[in-house]
Amino acid sequence: VGLLLKRRTGRPWVAELRDGWYRWNRAVFPDYPAWRDPLERRLEAAALRSADRVVLVTDRMASAFRRQYADLAPEHFAVVPNGFDATQFAAQPPDPRNGWEVLHAGALYYGRSLSSFLEAAARLVDADPEFARDFRLTLTGTLDSTIRAMRSADALLLVSNTTPGAEATVPGKLFEYLAVGRPVLAVAPPDSSTADVLESTGGGRLAPAGDPAAIACVLQQAFRERSNPPLPSEVAVARFDRRLLAGDLACIFDQVVGGAARRY
Question: How would you class 240 by CB atoms within 10 Å of its CB: exposed for 0-12, middle for 13-18, buried for 19 or more?
Fold first, then answer.
């Protein structure tokens, strides 16, 4: 629709991609039909070349598109990350709890599996009586119903997509976890945008997906430090407040509109 409106009106167009497009869809969806391949490849190229600016949500994603469209200026691709709505995360007293609870909020789909984490937890349950006594894993529903539960948990479990190309993306759930301010345990590729965000915020620990031994090591370390866990940096997390990100997006709009005005 944006491409058609751009061609019809000639007005400035900022295209935003929350995930990748052609290559991403081909990698992520196992039932990707053959007929869709050339159609989507041409549509992506037409849209991204026609847009006055393309906004991506991670630096890795922007780098991938810059390599793919090396003839376009690097600044054609801008980055405004995902974030959180601070009004949803006003301070609330945590619910009383027993033991040591790790909570996963939301759905698991497309390349996300708990199997390695469950195997790691089972190993620790068998090897450590104290862990076996205190460990609790909670799987809960959507954000609106779980913010209080997230705040009460001892650690928040993040399971990232491990399909090829997904390392350039970040689950939106991570920013909600950071807003809550509890330690994050991430099962994700070490060389990924998820790892980048955790490193920049001090938000938690990461172990590679598919490696139960490494996950068990990270889980055990978090359990041992449960009385004084490392918490995300409030200053670093604040830059993902959507009110600030909206300002960044507004600056891009101003640049694009200003450039269009100079052309005319």
Answer: buried
